Amino acid sequence: MILSYQNEGVERLDKFLASRFSNYTRNYFQRLIESGHVLVNRQKQRNRNFLHKNDSIEINFIKFKDDINLNPADIDLEIIYEDDDVVAINKQAGLVVHPAAGNPNGTLVNALLKKYPELVDVVFDKNSEVSRSRPGIVHRLDKDTSGIILVAKNKRALVSLSKQIKNRSVRKIYWALCYGWPKEKQGRIISYLGRSPKNRKMVADLGPTAGKEAISVYRVIKYLVDSKNDHYSIVEFNIKTGRTHQIRHQAASIHLPIMGDRVYGSKNCIQASDFHNIGRQMLHAKHIEFYLPGATKLTLLEAPLPKDMKSIIDNFDLIGL
């Protein structure tokens, strides 16, 4: 496509294109310009280059390989609460929350858009690909973690829930099936997490200077043993912060790795997981407590343990400690 710039004043190239073609974001045009698919007077440009009257702009619209797919998808969702502002989903294990590189579609967001097409407008910044890929999403769960996830159905709810999470006023309780018995029945874990310099798919405790503070309070719900007399425990984690892989890393740090976790699990934990045919980390977001937009009383929601996790636990013997 070729068009002529006829405005009297000068204007940044990327900003002009985003205003001229509202179906595309400014971020998209910045990528288009940097990759040489936008020419001004037959010359390659940079995002910060300015247009002048009578400049000739040649645009080659392309689809980038990692473009986010926000097409609706027909995926069954278990809704445990819904009103005009918020919907709470009991997410099944194996379902990715939002599109990203490697998982461009078939996510919770795609499923939500099938039922709630209006969610495409629930964003902070339409020029942000990150924001656009997560309409209504205010917090996340790992792909193989099951349980409650809140979704904002409008901007009012998005702002309210996001502020509560930022202020740490949302109470999130997880249950995990762990390998071993902890030395203490309850305790508090503080670490400073960030991407591991050795493995970018993991987090590590980088210390207070380089990492972000992560706080969890845990307590043992049940002590268990299996037919080989190996020790297991059901542990409740009350997370005060919401860092990536927080519970998985911190559980392993106190020698209580989560069963089925092949990233942070110990050798013995992984062997035990194989013995019990556990194919994913046994971590479940069981309770969440928060304020509905405009409410003065807390709302408490609960998601029952999924069948795969419950059936594994039922195979163990309970020990009264």
Global morphology = elongated
Question: What is the class of the largest domain in the CATH system?
Answer: Alpha Beta
Helix content: 10-25%
Class based on secondary structure composition and strand pairing? alpha+beta
CATH superfamily of the largest domain: Pseudouridine synthase
Query: The CATH topology of the largest domain is what?
Result: Pseudouridine synthase
Name the CATH architecture of the largest domain: 2-Layer Sandwich
Radius of gyration over alpha carbons?
Answer: 24 Å
Stretches with pLDDT under 50, minimum 5 residues = none
Return the domain count.
3
Taking the alpha carbons of the first and last residues, their distance comes to: 73 Å
Strand residues, percent = 25-35%
Oligomeric form? single chain
Description of the molecule:
This protein is α+β, with helices and mostly antiparallel strands. The chain folds into three domains: 58 residues, RNA-binding S4 domain (Structural Genomics Hypothetical 15.5 Kd Protein In mrcA-pckA Intergenic Region, Chain A); 102 residues, Pseudouridine synthase, CATH 3.30.2350; 154 residues, Pseudouridine synthase, CATH 3.30.2350. 22% of the residues lie in helices and 30% in strands. The protein contains nine helices and 17 strands. It is elongated and about 80 Å long.
